[in-house]
Amino acid sequence: MVNKLKKLPQAFKDILKVASKQASSLGFKIYLVGGVTRDLILGKATFDLDIVVEGDATVLAAKLAQRRGLNFRRHHAFGTAAVYVGEHKIDFATARSEYYPHWGSLPKVAPAQLKEDLFRRDFTINAMAIGLNKADYGKLIDFYGGVADLKKGLIRVLHKESFLEDPTRILRAVRFKQRFSFKIDRDTDKLMRQALKLEALTFLHPHRLSDELILILKEEETYLYIKRLYELTQLSFLKKKMKMDEKDFALLRRIDKAVSFYKRKFKKGKRCESWLIYLGGMVIRLSLEEILNFFRRFGLKKVDIIRVLSMKENLHKIKRLNKKLLPHSIYQLLQPLSIESILFFYAYYPQKKIRDNIEYYLRELAHIRLKVKGEDLKKIDLKPYDLYSRLLQRLLYAKIDKGLKTKRQEIKEAKAIYRRLVRRQPRLL
To answer: H helices then E strands: how many in the chain?
Structure first.
């Protein structure tokens, strides 16, 4: 595995060597664990590292961060800390065993050795480690058959109560199965279905479920994940007797294509949180009250709630795009919306005219801004000042419709709009 470690970015390799020396000086042992080990074996790029420490992880992370001048954050309750390397982070955790007071609860933890720590993992393919100490640097540690399961393409839990202790593993099984095109081990599948019969997902706090759901919605080709999740759970954790049919799945497929289209054609466009578009596709047929109940239970951020509600609230308004419109009318309809809502409507409505108008907005209109500001209007002595908001709005629409390019053209147009507004001033007041 030494050669695998060499494929990590140089900044990470440097940090690991320093961490290894620092751990040795403290009498600790450290190991690279979990998904990063799996991905290195599979030859996949990985940038978020997890390190288990036989010793106090918070002490090691603090000393490492201080020595390298890095930011870090510690979480005393779980004996964990994160060290930030540029845009990425390295998580440090004290090796621990776990005990679940009841099914679905957060575990109680206690310090332990590496073997016990790996046994608490979700699946065997995530229960491997790589030594980072002088005596075992680069050595693969595989107590539970993770390498064999990787070769077979199997998702397998480590013990029979795994899905009951932590039902989020049901959603993770779906995610890993789909991501790697693996199969779920026969006994594991049986245990998972037994847990679902016991409605294990209801054991969890909704916020934990929403975290796992968001991870699924961030995967590539998300439609396939949602379809598999529905087949397995009927999404009952979102709403009892949730109904999805081919029409819903067709929309999710179109969302896949809309997201791909945007990433391909508008690489310099606004950042898009595509998982919100898929979430919109999943809940769009629910009533507004049902959607609000879902948000209250699952604790989404206010800004995300607003974006999904916008999809529901503007659904019929967007039909106006199904005809020939002046450019500023297209702008009026789409400019107040988030990029997630716009792409949702691009997927929701297959009509060519609607899609053409949305593409035109994204390509030609979305980034238009006035060069003229209120201060420029004052300099040419346009009064009263309370006309400015209306004047600037009409100037923007004129710029869009007439294709004004220069500040000089805008000022000329502003004067013409001003004269019209002043003539109407008595009626406006």
So the answer is: 22, 11
CATH code assigned to 2-152: 3.30.460.10
Give 28-83 pLDDT, tens digit per residue. Answer: 999 999 899 999 999 887 777 999 999 999 999 999 999 889 998 988 767 799 99
- Average pLDDT of the segment spanning 364-370: 96
**pTM score:** 0.89
In the chain, where are the structural domains located? 2-152, 245-365, 374-428
Query: Under a CB-based contact definition with an 8 Å cutoff, are residues 83 and 49 in contact?
Result: no
pLDDT band at 428 (very low <50, low <70, confident <90, very high): very low
Q: Which residues, 6+ apart, have CB-to-CB distance to 353 below 8 Å?
A: 321, 322, 323, 324
Q: Are strands 49-54 and 88-94 parallel, antiparallel or unpaired?
A: parallel
Give the model's pLDDT for residue 8: 85
Phi, psi (degrees; rounded to nearest 5) at 6: -65, -20
Mean pLDDT of 161-188: 96
What is the rounded CA–CA span in Å between residue 8 and residue 289?
A: 48
User: Which helix (DSSP H) or strand (DSSP E) does residue 414 occupy?
Assistant: helix 407-423
- For 301-316, the pLDDT digits (tens) are 999 999 999 999 999 9
Q: Any idea of the CA torsion for 120, 121, 127, 129, to the nearest 10 degrees?
A: -80
**What pLDDT, on a 0 to 100 scale, did the predictor assign at position 427?**
52
CA-closest candidate to residue 178, choices 128, 118, 231: 231
Q: Which two tokens stand for residue 16?
A: 């690991």
Residues 6+ positions from 2 with CB-CB distance below 8 Å? 137, 138
- Taking a C-beta distance cutoff of 8 angstroms, is the pair 82, 61 a contact? yes
The amino acid at residue 88 is: H
Give me the percent of the chain exceeding a pLDDT of 70.
99
Alpha-carbon gap, residue 410 to 399, rounded angstroms = 7
Whether 71 and 65 have beta carbons less than 8 Å apart is answered as yes
Evaluate whether the domain defined by 245-365 bears CATH number 2.60.40.10: no
Q: Is the pLDDT of residue 429 over 50?
A: no
Distance CA 79, CA 166 (A): 20
Rg of the chain over all Cα atoms, to the nearest angstrom: 28
List % helix, strand, coil for the chain (3-state, nearest 5). 60, 10, 30
